[in-house]
Specification:
Blueprint (H helix, E strand, L loop, with lengths): L1 E4 L13 H25 L2 H26 L15 H29 L6 H22 L7 H30 L3 H29 L9 H9 L4 E13 L2 E10 L2 H4 L3 H14 L7 E8 L12
Parallel strand pairs: 3-4
Antiparallel strand pairs: 1-4, 2-3
Helix pairs in contact: 1-2, 1-4, 2-3, 2-5, 2-6, 3-5, 3-6, 4-5, 5-6
Length: 309
């Protein structure tokens, strides 16, 4: 019986260092949050309250993102063989949970104000809406290049984009109230902001849950992987085939591979291992650089106590 690893953990390429970008975005977002709180207090606008609440969760989320980005730089050790690579997933999940709570609050309060609209100062609302939009524009510009690097940055980028949309909606509502006197515009905009937040939070929760539940990575068909491995010479059966994702850009795969008994006697296993590892690294849409194969002789296959798909 033989076991092979595609690469040692120490050989894995580390995650990119995005701490500087996250730190800058955190500073901009925190300042923007303070401005929106002041604007909400002066104008009485729920839309600004929603925007401020969203920016508060963004600030919290960015703090988590920055902590996660710092942790993932720490090297793996014997206790944590993957290091803190999964910290970015946990951070994104926490951000999504907080975002969901904010969205629910805004939607409930928006409905209440739609029924009983309060008096609002549209001029103040407009000024702070513009301030918020400018701040969010700066944050978006800082995150644009690195937003696809991992779930952590993707969550942060989606949050500031939602903030920008919220600030734009605040500006529109302020103009409508100032020109028509329709006070319910503030509540309508708040409902729109809540509606923008909720689905994006759910999408991030879905993606992080898939990683934490060790689901098969998107784009990888395990039936196709099995068929392709079985086409390899000397391979008779593939079972206990599992694939999951440790963090963004780090998929892993393991399998038990039943081969000819002769492979154990004539020294063919190293070459066979290389071939299987190249197969999963190069042949499929998801490139798996870290694979583990356990070889079993055909004569031993009946002794396997339990098999999984």
């Amino acid at each position: 019986m033989g076991t092979g690893h595609g690469h040692d953990h120490a050989d894995l390429a580390g995650p990119g260092d995005h701490r500087r970008v996250l730190g800058l975005v955190l500073g901009v977002t925190a300042a923007n949050f303070v401005a929106q709180v002041v604007g909400a207090a002066l104008s009485g606008s729920l839309a600004l309250v929603a925007d401020a609440g969203h920016m508060l969760t963004d600030t919290m989320g960015l703090v988590l993102a920055l902590v996660a980005a710092t942790l993932v730089q720490r090297a793996a050790d014997r206790r944590r063989t993957w290091g803190f690579r999964r910290a970015e997933v946990l951070s994104a999940a926490a951000q999504a949970v907080v975002l969901t709570g904010v969205a629910v609050y805004v939607l409930v309060e928006g409905i209440r104000r739609l029924l009983h609209p309060p008096v609002i100062a549209p001029g103040t609302m407009l000024v702070f809406g513009i301030v918020g939009l400018v701040g969010n524009g700066v944050a978006i510009a800082l995150l644009t290049r690195s937003r696809a690097a991992d779930l952590n940055l993707r969550a942060a980028f989606l949050e500031v984009v939602n903030d920008a949309l919220g600030s734009a909606a605040v500006i529109v509502a302020a103009v409508v109230i100032a020109t028509t006197g329709w006070w319910r515009a503030d509540a309508v905009v708040s409902l729109l902001v809540g509606g923008l937040i909720l689905p994006r939070a759910v999408l991030i929760l879905r993606d992080t849950a898939a990683v934490l539940l060790e689901s098969t990575p998107k784009g990888l068909d395990l039936d196709e992987v099995r068929r392709h491995l079985l086409e390899t010479e000397h391979v008779h059966e593939v079972h206990d085939l599992h694939a999951s994702q440790i963090a963004t850009g780090l998929p892993v795969l393991s399998a038990h591979v039943v081969v000819d008994d002769s492979c154990f006697a004539n020294g063919q296993l190293p070459a066979l291992l290389d071939e299987l590892q190249r197969c999963v690294a190069d042949h499929f849409p998801v490139s798996i650089e870290h694979s583990t194969f356990q070889f079993e002789p055909l004569s031993h296959s009946a002794h396997e106590p339990a098999r999984h798909a």
